[in-house]
Amino acid sequence: MIILKLGGSIITEKDAKIPTINDKNLARISKEIKSALNHLDHTNDYNNGLIIVHGAGSFGHPFASEYQIGKPFKIEEDFEKKKIGFSLTQSWVKKLNTVICDALREEGIPVVSIQPSSFVITKNKRIISANLDIIEKYLENGFIPVIYGDVVLDREETIKMAVVSGDQLINYLAKHLKPERVILGTDVDGVFNKNPKKHPDAKIITEVTSLDDLESMDSTTNIDVTGGMIGKIKELIELAEIGIESEIINAEKESFVEKALCGEIVLGTTIKM
Ligand code: ADP
Q: Mean pLDDT of all residues in the chain?
């Protein structure tokens, strides 16, 4: 089985003030996934399955940060306001998921939408409960589950609710479902020694084996509510520690997603031990 992530930076205009889809990327990548599935001879078989995880981008971050989802709060009034914020965020990321599922289905891919807020619970922002039986069952039947960054309830009384990023979902799904490959498509060529969007002289690190490789990383820039690149790598290092390799590739580059799904090596960063 393969787990593929489509970053919020790819399928949405991430820095847009209002939720905006990146239609061009979405249409192209949907086609690439379809032709990869043809090539991989995707059948009704769990082992040949594919799970797609997508980020929230401009459909999630503006609301999650406006309503401070996952931040401690005290008074009862705040909770009432936060609940509206939770509901609003849930609604927007669900809309995004619908658009993505529609685009994939138009290519003939039998997608099924999986909504984290309906079955995932966190404690201190980490997933502690999520029954994956349903996902396994869909895979066994040849469906392609599409799961996404969402808001969820949190057991920690001081925060009560949290954002679960696509990257944390990748971590949890991979630990429990043990995929053969984990591929993350984002809007840069991989992990660099510093943020390549801010530093033109940044150099790509083709293999990350420990968080120490990132010491020189500029962690103060490009931080979103889910932790940006640093948060992503932390999730993936945990997987590498239990023998699950992952690769970060540039999904903005034509055919990279397709090639990576088909097992071809494309420019990017591998996270392994
Ligand atoms: P996605 O939405 O695709 O999951 P994120 O926006 O969370 O991706 O993370 C990708 C972004 O991380 C890039 O657009 C880049 O600006 C930023 N970034 C910060 N530091 C680095 C780094 N050292 N190497 C690569 N990207 C970095």
A: 92
